[in-house]
Automatic annotation (TrEMBL):
Pfam (any one): TerD
Protein name as annotated: Stress protein
InterPro entries noted in UniProt: Stress/Tellurium_Resist, TerD
Domain TerD: 14-166
Domain of life: Bacteria
Amino acid sequence: MISDSAPQRLPKYVSQLRCGLGWDAQAEAELDLDMAVLALTADGKLAAGKEGVIYAGHPHHPSGAIQLLNDNITGAGEGDDEQLLIRLQVVPAEITKLLFVVNIDCGEEQQQDFSQTENAFWRILDNANQQVLLRSALSNPQWQGITTLFIATLERIETQWQLASCLEASPLNNLNELLYGYLPA
């Protein structure tokens, strides 16, 4: 597992990654966390425009390299409430970086934020051996008003992938607002 600032080169034998997002269900109000991945080109724009965003409304990348497996809207149950698979050997060459994002669906409208989440986490594993490569806690009482978090990046450097945590609050409050900065001109 890596820390919040130390990038890690993935071993060449790692061919498939699994991301997991989990949180505890809330008794007083449903809190819907959503995981998304932005597939970016070398110039920092979305590969294939909006097709380069994988989220509940668009769960598959056209290449088949990235697939959101499920969309849990309550956090009920143990372990990963949402999962996403990445097949590294199938990621198109034009995609040089994957940016992982977690947001609270309708968080701003419902006055929900990450200070209200309980036991929320995001993690990425080597799917073959289930080794956790990075884990981030997403519940923070200081994140009042924060509904979108940048979690991590996976960047292709020459022929290897490098994973780095970039856990930080987005100044934007929903995924749609966030996308406009990454759309090709």
